[in-house]
What does this fold into?
Amino acid sequence: MKHTEMTSEELMALSEKNIMGTYKRFPLVLTKGAGASVWDKNGKEYLDFVSGIAVCSLGHSHPRVVEAIRQQAGVLTHVSNLYYIEPQILFAKFLVEHSFADKVFFCNSGAEANEAAIKLARKYASLQTDGGMYELITMKDSFHGRTLATVTATGQERFQAGFAPLPAGFMYVPFNDLDALEHAVTEKTCGVLVEPIQGEGGVRIPAAGYLAGVREICDRHGLLMILDEVQVGMGRTGTFFAYEDYGVTPDIVTMAKALGNGFPVGAMLATERVASVFTPGTHASTFGGNPLAMAAALATAEVMTGEGVLENCRDVGVYFLARLAGLKGKYGFIRDVRGKGLILAAELAIAGDDIVRACMEKGLLINCTNGTILRFVPPLIITRENVDRAMTILDEVMKNI
It folds into this structure.
């Protein structure tokens, strides 16, 4: 039987038989996407407010990105970083011109970008001292990836369970607590790794002055400030980089997710002072910055910065947050609503999984994190009408709780 002739049930059974059970999947086989919508195997349409977990920020199958991939695939898909790669050079130039950074390292995912940042911070510190500075301070409830180092950097024990012994060199303090950060600094500390907004941790927003305070502590102690913008960068907060709104200049920033609008791309950006310690042989990635990925990423970035996407994110984000606040006033089990741009959350006093499933049945895809926090990360191209439709569905679901 051809795969196109298989039913959703047959495909899901085949998945359970052949794919490792690392994901708790919904009983849904998605086969097509366009804009803010996706369709399942049976032809049912869903409004997608997950967007691949903040990945498809330009929506699904954006024509500029599709055409860039198609053209590049017909010319050159991959060569080694032993040679200069034209699309990589052009995208690196774009990122440098639009950021604090002087240099870029390309990889394939957020975990890889954060792994590279950890290595860069340790390498930099090892050349400034006798090797005694190697620890990074990260935040409780953070999320930095699934590799052994990045899951250790993640300040959530549930992601670390069963993987001991974890690598040494990480300390954790509460997010939004500058006093705790100050007291955690020791002679071993080389840097601070923090998300401008904690996404997986529940869309937790920094207090006024928090990130500036982190910068001041780093400067005073000679530490590197590393911002993980894997989920909240690339326009998600309404600016191309999340740090732009907080009046800080980091030493290192990591990116991925929306960087290629669905094509796997990761990047680590740094100042010349720090990046200079990465010399030939210190770090590498076989597929990092290959021509196909770079064509997708450059097209994505050009659309995002040149076609009103960031402005739309800010405008619709304010409207969306107001609509969520309206629901909070209507339902007592909504404890809080919060967000910035188009990364938003509704924190509940009850479990959120049943709400997610009920919304899915009505044609709306949303996400629940930490058990009780509904997270909304739709494409940045959504309209107010899309928000109205989503809120109508969510309201209908909540009425029946």
Notes: Residues 309-330 form the longest helix (22 residues). The radius of gyration is 21 Å. The mean pLDDT is 97.
